[in-house]
Amino acid sequence: MRSFAAAWSLLRRRLLLVIVATVATQGVYAWAVLPLVLLLFQAALGVAGVDGLSQASLPGLLGNPLALLTLILAVLLATFFALLEICVFTVIAQLCFRGEAPSMPAILRGLAGIGRRAMSWQIVLFAGYALLVIPLSHVGVGSALTSHIAIPKFVSGEITKTVPGSIGYAAIVVVLVYLGLRLAGTPAALSGGQGTVLRAMRRSMALTKRTQIYIALVVLAVGAAAVVVFFVAALLGTVPVALAPNATTGSHVAGSMLAVLTLVQFIGTGIAAAFLAFFFVALLHGGRVSPSYRVPVRDRASRVAAGVVLTLFVLLAAPPTVYATMAAQPSAAPLVIAHRGYTAGGVENTIQSLRAAAAAGADVVEMDIQETADQKFVVIHDVGLQRLAGDPRSVYQLTQAEAAGIVVRQGGFSGHIPTLEEYLKTADELGIRVLVEVKPHGHEAPGFAQRVVDVMDRLDPQHRHMIQSLNTGVVDAIVRADPTRAVVLVTGFQIGNAPRTTTGGVAIEDWSYSDEMLVSLHNQGKKLFVWTINDPTLISDYLGRGVDGIITDSVAEAITTRHLNETIKNSVSRYLDSAIRQIKPQ
Prior knowledge:
This protein is an alpha/beta fold. The protein has helices spanning about 1-15, 15-50, 60, 65-95, 105-120, 125-135, 155-160, 165-180, 185-190, 195-205, 210-240, 245-285, 300-325, 350-360, 385-390, 400-405, 420-430, 450-460, 470-480, 515-525, 535-545, 555-565, 570-580, and strands at about 50-55, 335-340, 365-370, 375-380, 405-410, 415, 435-440, 465-470, 485-490, 495, 505-510, 525-530, 550.
């Protein structure tokens, strides 16, 4: 407990310095590093002639030497900034433990020393730690640049649908958390002059050999404390919202309070990061507390810098945040699209799950089709039949009649694989639209896209139903063959601009979504669907963002949430709902 007490003592005595350092590092990130990284990234995309980093564009990017070099420069810049951002609080702590005043020149000298020691091939080791281990394990002091790094939900969701996949995924998470705990002392060791990155990592491994549980408890306690502080601030914000004389004023006051909460979250995250950094430095020093914590920062340069940083923060950050929050207006509710039907009432992609989706109130049902050996179509997601049917064969090895006779089982339900004809006929009887995802398996005969168009025209001459696919060649061919059909390009991984496409819409995975992408597509007159949104918080969040549809397994929850959002007009309730959604892992 000595390390915890030492970190708490240091935080109390240097709280103003922590706030100034938080504002300064985030200011450098927002005004210099992020624009430069984005500039390099966009330059790489421009050189390669692609619109974003995705499965389709990756070969073009990696095959262009200039684009690849530019991407490497962007990653190096991001890594170097992450190194300095993660180490700034450990440098402050090391200065205090050595009995030195943490002045601006002293902090900059400490960061410069870390930069010099890290600038070798070992920067790759730190990149792996800062850009992967910390954000994926949520253990340690992270960087603003890595706050959105996570395992995409569509990847984890597919992996965990089988027992071996769930075990493998759990093992990966355990390994990441273990690495996060064992390497958590790396920034402290590096800022303490422990030589190279590799030496600092070895020092961290030695330091955390018998303290992993202690460290985990401290990290959890800090996170819990931050959440409690945020909730208390959110509850206090209900008072001015409740006192507003009318609904319009209440909306504006709620916007202002949400902006204040954003600033509280910003400062609170910085304080939590500083405490963890101080804790690891104290752990490195055995928890010894130096009386020279009280050495004041008297030099003029540091005082002027602190004043400038705080003034710029008040002038440049707070008012735009308040304005942006107040100016936000609720958007029209998106479509609720049942992902492969509603599996709470039947096996995915079967008639039973289609009926369950319609009964739950879904606006659209998304399903998958594949071509059989006789160039007909059945409704199924996987190419192989092992997961749902325990059959070692693949769809392309069977005729439509053979595939349609196979029984599939999932979640205590059973059913047969439907033909496309049977599925669309049932959907029409139920009065529900279908989003048909075309899934090429690579064994199709020539003219595949045209056959899709022909069968859809025959079964759906009114063009009520939509088509989507991950395959850009297929969607482009379908658009050319039938420009009047609503077609959507599915993108599982996209960093950068919205994908350029001839389709009328894009279905983006939640991990790759950005508001800028939404605005860009809407400006082009295109729709944006987001998949697969199952978390209640995310469902509520996207319902207010203005996307055109959310693809979800949690159909009933999404319908209920949309109904509540449409009926609850109380400013306090809306404010609290928005405040709760604002808490995200940092």
